[in-house]
Automatic annotation (TrEMBL):
Protein species of origin: Parapedobacter pyrenivorans
InterPro entries the UniProt entry points to: Ald1_epimerase_CS, Aldose_1-epimerase, Aldose_1/G6P_1-epimerase, Gal_mutarotase_sf_dom, Galactose_mutarotase-like, GH-type_carb-bd
High-level lineage: Bacteria, Pseudomonadati, Bacteroidota, Sphingobacteriia, Sphingobacteriales
Protein's recorded name: Aldose 1-epimerase
Obligatory cofactor(s): Ca(2+)
Pathway membership: Carbohydrate metabolism; hexose metabolism
Active site (catalytic residues): 214 (proton donor), 350 (proton acceptor)
Listed CDD domains: galactose_mutarotase_like (cd09019)
Length: 383
């Protein structure tokens, strides 16, 4: 019965979109990608920005549906089946492209880079040269600065019913970073309801790279009031404590007997408001977890909504996972469906190398040299 409900849901969406599940072309045009009408209107994401075309692309595997914009390589919506077979949009986002272009939009759904997370004072030294980046987070650089990848129009390289490959070429000196960097990201909806994200990059000069996706999730559905009831598991024995500007101190602290111990399924809200010094600094969770994992793609975290029964597994090749509990969300306007997003109504779990690694040699290196390829993969899998 559940499989029948899922199939019926997909059929309704594709019928609305004017796309046949049997006759959908292998090479899609953006005009055909309209199945995201449940939450957004594709025409509201079409624009010409400095001569570059922005459109919305819809992927489906026959069960799940993802809508992705080439503006910031953003995940705009992601519909997955709940315990009753009904499709639920589990990714927060804005109603149109204009809202994503507003100042301080929060990186919703974007690929952030060149360096995801924070770099202290926006400075690092590489091969004897000091580099100064754009400051956009108090005294620090966050997610690539004011001119990061989240605000770029990515070129569409390849698109099929279930996958989309995008490229952005970042020139030498872009946002203060050295080297011409050619970056690609490929999204694929897999047969087991995974949103598979593969990142690649090459450079002509030594640089630092740390790419990740900044999706905001609520497995009870975008617009639901809270994520504090979600059960979270993170396979990590340690995390990196931060200073008052949320830069890692360099220590790797053990999670045991702290509010950061998610090695067993625990409600996000169970200990979030305890008088822990680290939680006070981040106004909740905004910390990098040191993953307990072997080489290759490994299961590192699981989240479950008690309302919808949706379970999300996170598999990654990365050594770190930034857990952010929506502590700075406040009356977010222009959301999908005319909704407003409020305090702790979403969480982020960003697979990554550690924050401020260019300044902390004990952390895994984020240096990319000419002749080498940056390549990493993360899967958000739903069941």
């Amino acid at each position: 019965m559940e499989n029948n409900k899922i199939s019926m849901s997909i059929a309704v969406i594709l019928a609305i979109a004017g796309v046949s599940a049997c006759n959908a072309p292998q090479e899609q045009s953006s005009d055909a990608n309209a199945s995201s009408v449940l939450t957004v209107v594709p025409a509201d994401f079409e624009a010409d920005i400095n001569g570059d075309s922005v459109k919305l692309y819809t992927l489906t595997n026959g069960t799940a549906i993802a809508a992705i914009s080439n503006y910031g390589a953003r995940v705009i919506s992601l519909h997955v089946p709940d315990k009753n077979g009904n499709l639920v949009d589990v990714v927060l986002g804005y109603k149109d492209l204009a809202a994503y272009r507003q100042p301080g939009e929060g990186f919703y759904g974007a690929v952030v880079g060149r360096y995801g997370n924070r770099i202290a004072k926006g400075q690092f030294e590489l091969e004897g040269q000091q580099y100064q980046l754009e400051l956009n987070d108090g005294p620090n650089t966050l997610h690539g600065g004011t001119n990061g990848f989240f605000g770029k129009v990515w070129e569409v390289q390849h698109v099929t019913d279930s996958s989309l490959a995008l490229q952005y070429v970042s020139p030498d000196g872009d946002a203060g970073y050295p080297g011409k960097l050619e970056a690609t990201v490929k999204y694929t909806l897999t047969s087991d309801n995974g949103l598979d994200i593969t990142y690649r990059a090459t450079t002509d000069k030594a640089t630092v790279v740390n790419l990740t996706n900044h999706a905001y999730f609520n497995l009870s559905g975008e617009g639901d009031s809270t994520i504090l009831d979600h059960l979270l598991t993170i396979r990590a024995d340690g995390y990196t404590p931060v200073d008052e500007t949320l830069i890692p101190t360099g220590e790797i602290a053990q999670v045991e007997n702290t509010p950061f111990d998610f090695r067993q399924p625990t409600a996000i809200g169970a200990r979030i408001d305890t008088a822990d010094a680290q939680l006070l600094l981040g106004k909740g969770y905004d910390h990098n977890f040191v993953l307990k994992k072997d080489a290759g793609l490994q299961l590192v975290a699981t989240v479950e909504s008690p309302k919808t029964g949706i379970v999300m597994d996170i598999l990654t090749e990365e050594p770190g996972l930034q857990f952010y509990s929506g502590n700075f969300m406040d009356n977010v306007q222009h959301a999908k469906g005319g909704k407003t997003y409020n305090y702790r109504s979403a969480f982020c779990l960003e697979t990554q190398h550690f924050p401020d690694a260019p300044n902390q040699p004990e952390f895994p290196s984020t240096i990319l040299d000419p002749g080498s390829e940056y390549k990493t993969r993360t899967v958000y899998r739903f069941r």
